[in-house]
Amino acid sequence: MSEEIIILSVFRGDQSGGQEQAYRVPLETGMVVLDALHYIQAEYAPDLAVRWNCKAAHCGSCGAEINGMPKLLCKTRLDEYVGQVVHVRPMHAFPLIRDLVTDVSWNYRVAKEIPPFQPATPAPFVMYQRDVDRIQEFHRCIECFLCQDTCHVLREHGGHDQYFGPRMMTKIAEWEMHPMDTANRSAFLKDVAGIPMCDVTRCCVEVCPENIVITDNAIIPLKERVADIYWDPIQALFRKFRRPAGSLEPTKSPVDG
Amino acid sequence: MPSHQASIASQVNAETIEQHQYDVIIVGAGGAGLRAAIAASEAGQQKVAVVTKSLLGKAHTVMAEGGVAASLGNVDADDSWDTHFYDTMKSGHFINNYRVAEVFAKEVPDRVLELETWGAVFDRTPAGKIMQRPFGAHSFRRLAHIGDRTGKELIRTLQYKVIHQAVDVYQEVTSTALLVDAQGRIAGIFGYYREDGRFVLFRAKAVVLATGGWGKAYKVTSNSWESTGDGAAMGFRIGAELMDMEMVQFHPTGMVWPPGVRGLLVTEGVRGEGGLLYNSKHERFMLRYDPVLQELSSRDVVARSIYKENQAGRGTPHGGAWLDISYKPAAYVKAKLPGMYEQFRSLADVDITREPFEVAPTVHYTMGGVRVDPETCATNVEGLFAAGEVACGLHGANRLGGNSLGDILVFGRRAGAGARAYAAETAWKEIDPSAVEREAERVLAPLAREDGEQPYHLMADLQEVMTTYGGMVRSQEGLETGLARLQELEDRAGRMAVKGTRAYNPGWHTVFDVESMLLLGKSIMLGALARKESRGAHWRIDFPEELPEMGSLNYVQRLRGEQVVVEPTPVPKMPAELARLFEDDRAPGVRRRAERSGEGREGR
Questions:
Q1: What predicted TM-score, i.e. pTM, was given to this entire model?
Q2: In chain A, which residue's Cα lies nearest the Cα of B60?
Q3: Region class of B188: left (phi > 0), else alpha (psi between -120 and 50), else beta
């Protein structure tokens, strides 16, 4: 079994250009793409740039594109590709630094803009498991940014200045749907984070290594929330009478909050 | 080669290096570093930065699984800080610093609740409180958790707290040296951006080391790549004292198959949720080694038991034991251990809800580290603080599961506050430009060598030596051989050569990882040689007994030139009111519960 050889064609290059280079790697049982890249570093190309930390699919550092699909290098088994050349390329939606490493700093910049969790009171909170189940799904996110990489708005249209992307929508949903949260992010979602840009193609759901149903469970409910507040005429009328004196922003709906 | 080096040397001029100035700089962005940054920036009067060699949110904390131990008493109302203190000291075999353990046990519940205030969402009890699960050698159900992904919850919560606070974060910057003034006081940090290799010089009044452990010095380890002990090594080089370096924790349950995942952690939560250990004869061998605590005995005991079963020919095909949770309902296993279910399904083609799986000990945690003051986390170097795995004092000879996540919260906060208070009262220190230039030249040297040793190969050899001679089973002969082998590696390390440029070059980054771990590896071996007994995680087959007279000693190490000096130092003596807790062989909460119910019913 260890005599079997697999060919990895790995992108080498930087902003000034580059191309794929082929390497022969002996296949071991259960080997993942990252193992093969480490083999290449140790035996052929010590300067091959690849970002990784835990090699256990917990940290989300090693996102890349394997035969065109955004995947974690540490979780993608080579035995899925028997008889094929394995093409490994950097994520497309972010500026290239070198080889498989991209500049993902944009994600951290937009994350800073999200209005943080604002609890009604300090902990301890009384919250029941059934109330937190749906937000715990979003807490699974490992911030690998594969959903950002596959999102049409970011990937094809370079709309980084118009839409924060699926990852940030799950982050916002996590706080918006927290039973104790009091912040109102509706205007922010519409005008700054750009949630109307999402065209609900669910590509992000397909690539999420944590199987978070981003579109259905985070983005659509948030879109509905924004639509209810800004575009529902009955709600708008209702609000007119309910709005506390002096408040300019729509108040947060207690029902779905 | 000399001409090459000369040309590089002539390019380095301290004045041309990018410079920044902060009152407090935290090195490391795991739980301890982020918690320190929050504390240091709290008052808002000082400039605070975090410098990390990884991206934010990727540090090794993310891999902590089972939970954070805190005596909230949500599930077992009899739990209390003194019971947590008792369990911690007892499992540490009493070479812990009692004051560190006391502060820890008292403060950790508040630190956990604070996380909830900041947005962490722990699993809930039926009454709507934070759920707590049982764990090895904890007297009560004590670990607050979110499934088996508690570390991720901690780091993500702290990460989002930090980015909304006045803290500058320098991501993917490698620190290579701490800089001191003529009096040996902290003055700054030298490092480089991984992206393009350009140098950066930070001036700082106070530096907090929060760089984690050095489990990556071993071949079979649960640690991520970054656990290379940079902070401990940098501190050691400028005079900081290390302590109890021989104490390296082997987690009893790491994955063993397939080869690529060997060492990957299998959370103690599996046993906490009822997982049972079997040998190849389908015997529950833990009933023999620890009839009371059984599978939930302390980690050192369980790890050694698995080793002994293998020595006796009762191991599994790949040299481990079977762990079985398949007798529990599949839905329960998937809900409480979702990460484990997925990890085995995707990486090993095993469905843990249906079948037992192989586990074996894996290097997990370094209990030893930089010696610190319990109140402020100050080290013996003025202006230098340390918290988390890099520091030493809480865990003694064996760390309890769930105590590391508590450690980083409690002492991260204290270190941040300690550094802030120190920085408020101290002046800026002078950095000698020639020291900066020397460091720059040292850092560039491997790139200038035409050929030499390949850093990845040295790393692999180092891990092999540490695993063979400084591993779970130690002897004088083995340790001496190990030290000699390390010396050979050190000679080779002086000739490390790196191909390519300074731009995101992992070969170059590995040079500094190897240098840190060679120094700390030597320190582990020397500590292990000095401690001529077996205690907790430290197992000497030539001194198999725990010796009472050594229970009052810590081994403190100092670097004198190139020489590591190891010195036995008395363990701080507990005051009477704490010492009294240990007069009973039951933990305080267990005793109180028994007394209340009028008879000696045992705690869990």
A1: 0.94
A2: A54
A3: left
